[in-house]
Design a protein that fits this description.
- This protein has 224 residues and is mostly helical.
- It contains 11 helices and 2 strands.
- The protein has a two-stranded antiparallel ribbon with strand order 1-2.
- Strand 1 and strand 2 form a beta hairpin.
- The longest helix is centred in the C-terminal third of the chain and has 15 residues.
- The protein is elongated, with a radius of gyration of 20 Å.
């Protein structure tokens, strides 16, 4: 009975077994950056080191610092999992997987429970601009566009000028480098620099919805 049910479910796999292929990694884990965040906060000037660390730990990403630092990411495991995605029409922003005889779901509910990030309506960010005398102007004065590699250089080499500058830069790093796993050559959207100038606004922004939208898009387009 179980074998018959599994066979019938295989008939609605998004990618038929005969069409399975080797995967190509387009996203990366950067869990080692958690230690880098620690290092950055440790070299904040003494006059605001305590308040900077406290503010980061109480931010929307603070709980990530409690993660196990030796987690290993396997692109092969993720690819094998994606091969067991079931073809379904609705809802379009979630995925169903066949694991043995069980059908399991990955949706914003599971993503929220795992990450602890906020969900809600994502506003239009196209009007967000660089803030005068903000971290973009002060740390990247010669850059119209800032890459994650540019950010890494500042985090590891620059002295921080004001309280919470390190926090703001680390939050942008966490958003792009760890939760989204994007390539370090990609440019950081300007709206993130605008948003992080108000730390409470950054914490209140539905970053869970933003990250999930990009994650589910990547997962769904990893297969033909």
């Amino acid at each position: 009975m179980k074998s018959t049910m599994t066979s019938s479910m295989k008939e609605i796999l998004k990618t038929a077994e005969g069409d399975w292929f080797k995967g190509k990694l387009t996203r990366h884990d950067h869990f080692e950056a958690l230690a880098r965040i620690d290092d950055v906060l440790n070299r904040v000037p003494k006059e605001f080191a305590v308040q900077d660390r406290r503010r980061f730990m109480t931010s929307c990403f603070g709980h990530f610092m409690s993660m196990h630092r030796k987690l290993k990411f396997s692109g092969g495991v993720i690819h094998q999992l994606l091969l067991w995605v079931l073809d379904h029409d609705e809802p379009t922003d979630e995925m169903l997987f066949l694991l043995g005889i069980h059908v399991v779901r990955f949706s914003k509910v599971e993503f929220s429970l795992i990450t602890g990030l906020r969900f809600g309506f994502v506003p239009d960010t196209s009007m967000y601009i660089v803030v005068e005398n903000g971290i973009h102007e002060r740390y990247f004065p010669a850059h119209d566009e800032v890459s994650l590699d540019d950010l890494r250089v500042v985090l590891t080499q620059r002295e921080f000028e004001k309280a919470y500058d390190a926090v703001k830069l680390c939050l942008i790093c966490m958003l792009n480098w760890i939760t989204m796993g994007v390539d370090e050559r990609l440019k950081i959207p300007v709206w993130q620099f605008w948003l992080v100038e108000g730390l409470n606004a950054f914490d209140a922004f539905p970053l869970g919805a933003h990250v999930y939208r990009h994650s589910i898009f990547s997962f769904k387009h990893a297969l033909p």
